[in-house]
Amino acid sequence: MSTIITGILSFIATNLDDLFLVMILFSVGKSLKKRDIVIGQYVGLISLLLVSLLIANGLKSFPEKYIGILGLVPIFLGVRSIWDSHKEDEDKKENKGNSKSNKSKNSLSKMGKFPIISIALITIASGADNIGVYVPIFSQESSSQIILSIIVFVIMIGIWCFLGDKFANIPAVKNVLNKYGHIFIPLTLIGLGIYIIVSSGLL
Length: 203
Known about the structure:
Elements: H1 2-27, H2 34-56, H3 72-95, H4 101-107, H5 115-126, H6 130-140, H7 143-168, H8 171-199
Helix pairs in contact: 1-7, 2-5, 2-6, 2-7, 3-8, 4-8
């Protein structure tokens, strides 16, 4: 029972920022498929668990700080979304097209042909600090406890995606994201990327 409680508490403590990210991803509506968001989250967070297991099992020389390089991914996506919004503004002057709310839906949808990979990389980057928490836990647990902890984490990822989707659809939250998402989303991504790079010790 203590293993389950430890797993739940450690997951919540290390993934509160990820819940916010998931909420933003779900807020773009049909621009991103829910399936891609969920798969991307699972790929990203399970990758962090595997890295933590490797380190806990003796790969102490793993250059954990270089995960900070992935901070360039959200920065790139944020800058690109600002550029796309600028291009849309230019088009509006000629065509008087769609409303601003469409910008927020487009800002995260243009992740290329592989949105799952982009989401997974952002998840890994934003959760790089998770490794510092998971490694000590795994290094002190038995094989059966590690398996139980991983099962707890896998379940919690699903709960996190469910909560992110529900929070994103709360009327007040949805209205704010629809109205200001074209500004809020890219700035959040850029800020997240800068934080990841700085906190990783690369700078």
